[in-house]
From TrEMBL:
Protein name stated in the entry: Integral membrane protein
Parts of the chain that traverse the membrane: 81-109, 129-149, 156-174, 180-197, 209-229, 241-262, 269-288, 300-325
Taxonomic lineage: Bacteria, Bacillati, Actinomycetota, Actinomycetes, Micromonosporales
Keyword Electron transport on entry: no
Keywords: Membrane, Transmembrane, Transmembrane helix
Length: 361
């Protein structure tokens, strides 16, 4: 710790604090209060030792590192580190889901020719601007399969940007686009996919390819079942299929989580909680129609699109809080037992016994 002319240390209230140190300390609010009080000076000192003396702002890498470390510490205190481990699994499943949807909707909707009086302005052989969107997500899935992790994330970010660009491009070009009840869940899955694993093994690279193949296979089966007819002539005819896909996705992820939980790995179960919101948004139209009692208006769809993420976030907070209470109860019970070797009782248990008026051995 650097000594000031008056003999006070860097952490003293009378010490001069530069703008860079002040901004690092603000970032440390990401950590819990107790951890920040005991380790804050050490963390700030480490970051200050590693940066140039003339910097006035923390680098983007340092800011992300502090925020990530603070989140992990908060989860650690709740005994919920499995949530951080489940995020890359949820991201891989999200990319795989988008690849399956892209392949299915390209074949079953976009390349289904409609009469000119039904859709006068088509995009070449495709119905809407969604053809660019779905090709973009298939390319992102391919990048996840074959490219390094940082390029895969950039490909996902580019596909998210392409999804957003489709919305203003439709009125500017006079061409149709997929409806918002399709684009909103795509954006939700895309944002989840940004958390792709840093070092993906085969378990992180194969699922996106399998997703694209699954979407293609399902579309081919529907083609055979249609017998020359067209069941899916527009996005409006895929509403029930999208809703069932959301339910099936949660079911498959839950099954995977239970299978892995048998071996003591709960990360896939955490991914179920993370995927509830994007999977629920796949059924935004049938949910809105059911709740509002009929064909929902634009405002009713918008309200449903706001409520579903709030419900998903609330569910995540409830699960984390329940897990934290259970974790603390287990620690309290285990800390009260003396060591089987030396018979010593931990300081935590001694304080608890003192608070109850008992004397620990």
């Amino acid at each position: 710790m650097t000594e000031q002319p008056d003999g006070t240390g860097q952490g003293s209230p009378t010490a001069e604090v530069g703008p860079l140190e002040r901004r690092y300390r603000r970032l440390l609010y990401a950590y819990p209060n107790r951890y920040r009080s005991s380790r804050g000076d050490e963390l700030v000192g480490t970051y200050l030792d590693l940066v140039e003396q003339d910097r006035r702002w923390p680098s983007r890498h340092d800011a992300v590192d502090v925020l990530r470390g603070g989140l992990r510490q908060r989860l650690r205190e709740q005994g919920a580190l499995g949530l951080a481990a489940g995020l890359p699994i949820a991201a891989t499943i999200a990319v795989s889901t988008l690849a399956a949807l892209a392949a299915f909707l390209l074949i079953q909707v976009e390349f289904t020719k409609l009469p000119a009086d039904v859709l006068p302005a088509q995009v070449g052989p495709a119905q809407t601007l969604g053809v660019f969107l779905w090709v973009g997500w298939l390319l992102a899935a391919l990048a996840t399969t074959v490219l390094p992790a940082h390029w895969a994330r950039r490909s996902v970010a580019a596909a998210i940007l392409l999804t957003l660009m489709v919305i203003p491009a439709a009125p500017l070009s006079g061409l149709a686009r997929p409806p918002l009840y399709v684009l909103v869940p795509v954006l939700a899955f895309g944002l989840t996919a940004l958390a792709l694993p840093t070092r993906p093994g085969w378990a992180g690279r194969i699922p996106p390819l399998l997703g694209a193949l699954t979407g293609t296979a399902v579309a081919a089966l529907f083609e055979v079942a249609e017998g020359g007819g067209n069941w899916f002539t527009s996005y409006g005819s895929t509403i029930e299929v999208l809703g069932m896909a959301g339910v099936g996705l949660v079911g498959l992820t839950l099954t995977l989580g239970l299978v892995r939980a048998v071996t003591g790995d709960s990360s896939a179960l955490w991914s179920v909680v993370l995927l509830v919101t994007p999977a629920g948004l796949l059924g935004i139209r049938p949910i809105a129609d059911w709740y509002w009692g009929g064909a929902s208006t634009w405002h009713e769809l918008a309200a449903t699109a706001v409520v579903l993420p709030l419900v998903g976030a609330g569910l995540l907070l409830v699960v984390v809080a329940w897990h934290g209470a259970r974790y603390r109860a287990i620690r309290a019970r285990s800390s009260g037992n003396p060591c089987p070797t030396c018979g010593h009782v931990s300081a935590v248990a001694q304080r608890a016994d003192a608070g109850r008026g008992r004397t620990a051995p």
